[in-house]
Amino acid sequence: MNVPFLDLKRQYSAIKEELDQTVFSVLSHTRFIMGPEVKDFEEKMAQYCGSKFAIGVASGTDALLLSLRACGVGPGDEVITTAFSFFATAGVISRLGATPVFVDIDPETYNMDPNQIEKRITTKTKAILPVHLYGQCADMDPIMELANKHNLKVVEDAAQAIGAKYKEKKAGTMGDFGCFSFFPSKNLGCAGDGGMVITNDAEMAELLRMLRVHGAKPKYHHSMVGYNSRLDTIQAAILSVKLKYLDKWTEKRREHAETYNVAFKDSDIIIPKEKDFNYHIYHQYTIGVKNRDKLREVLKENQIGHDVYYPIPLHLQECYRSLKYKKGDLPVAERKAEEVVSLPIYPELTEEEQNFVIEIIKKTV
Ligand SMILES: *Cc1c(COP(=O)(O)O)cnc(C)c1O
Fold first, then answer.
1. What pLDDT is recorded for position 60?
2. Taking CB atoms and a 6 Å cutoff, what residues make up the pocket around ligand 1?
């Protein structure tokens, strides 16, 4: 049986009519840049997350970039972040001329370990950038406490965590900014690139709205140099349709996660640990195994889709050699990079498919 890692065609066929209709409607009205669907989706997202403002941008990467820029991050500054994330988390810090300062992760949640932060704070530190990896929030209370104590900004990378909750608060609403990605494979994905920033600060929201249109306000008046980073009208229209289904899809993901959890309990497989105070949305269902590469081979032989997020921690990436980290500096992230493998978890995964995945894995590990 061929079990794809992700099959977006299943989602499309379930809501095809609605999606086709909304896309054709944008094609007909032709307001492709900053059309009415953008504002409409921003309002829906603000309401969904429980934030005052939402600003559509061109990608999750740009959501992070523009947020850090709005925090005033620039050359000479430092931003503290996790060593275990997608590259964009660190890349945006570097692109602003600042230096990423990597800390190790909690072995249970794979998220930034709050106990590792304070010793890395210097006079150059401007912000903390926690990531809610795989769909589970980082431990935000101690992070916010440190940020308040040291007067630092907090930008949440919630690209994988739309709808996740930490102590009843939605991902993205706890820091100064929350950043989302609508990359097609994310839990809420569009038909290309897209992103969003949420904030409760009216001034910051205004600044972000300027930054996404080259720093202009009003048009052709530039008090700052910004970016070309808007969410396309057509993407906003698609996202408004899909947002209605998101919570239902998340419930399905959680059911699949529970099925895996039960199946893998009492084995050598390390299963995801959802903290009591968290609501995990399972963007990924990621297990840890000793002989990961052998398991990957067997999965491949059996045509079971899977992937490794992430095989190289950020502090050991070649482009950061000049930062002088070495193997052994952040041991938990380094060990996890060798153990983890993510399994199919999309809402449309069938029982038959999931049972096959479980059977093969239990036979192998
Ligand atoms: C996907 C992702 C991003 C980047 O989002 P894009 O929309 O692809 O630019 C950033 N951080 C994390 C953790 C992600 O998973």
1. 98
2. 59-61, 85-86, 88-89, 131, 157, 159-160, 181, 183, 193, 195
